[in-house]
């Protein structure tokens, strides 16, 4: 496989990103994303290209002044096992560091993938009480999942909440 190049996602990439995400939604690994939501969040996404073709995507969502969430890493079935997911993740972690974040969160079925990148499973709350109450004001579904709210339990069943302290 040729070299993987990661770049900022563009609105022109959204339909391809949606096609990459859908198989994971069908297998209940990722939550579905409407096209409008992908367009709205395009600035959070990067895409991975091989020979000019988009073969993966992923997002970094800032949750708080020191905390970000890795979201929606999806890789084309034909590119699995070639380090595309790792390359996307590394680009997102670098972006988090550039933003001054000190912790990354993910909610995932891919425990081994994230564990190998320094994430650890967490059961307890990872923000202080005041921050928790501020985050409750968010309308973002991912924030509700992070907070482990009862209303989103159907989305999180079987997933592992993980966190990583950045250097």
TrEMBL record:
<dbReference type="GO" id="GO:0004042">
    <property type="term" value="F:L-glutamate N-acetyltransferase activity"/>
</dbReference>
<dbReference type="InterPro" id="IPR016181">
    <property type="entry name" value="Acyl_CoA_acyltransferase"/>
</dbReference>
<keyword id="KW-0012">Acyltransferase</keyword>
<dbReference type="GO" id="GO:0006526">
    <property type="term" value="P:L-arginine biosynthetic process"/>
</dbReference>
<feature type="domain" description="N-acetyltransferase">
    <location>
        <begin position="4"/>
        <end position="140"/>
    </location>
</feature>
<dbReference type="InterPro" id="IPR000182">
    <property type="entry name" value="GNAT_dom"/>
</dbReference>
<dbReference type="GO" id="GO:0005737">
    <property type="term" value="C:cytoplasm"/>
</dbReference>
<protein>
    <submittedName>
        <fullName>N-acetylglutamate synthase</fullName>
        <ecNumber>2.3.1.1</ecNumber>
    </submittedName>
</protein>
<dbReference type="Pfam" id="PF00583">
    <property type="entry name" value="Acetyltransf_1"/>
</dbReference>
<keyword id="KW-0808">Transferase</keyword>
<dbReference type="InterPro" id="IPR010167">
    <property type="entry name" value="NH2A_AcTrfase"/>
</dbReference>
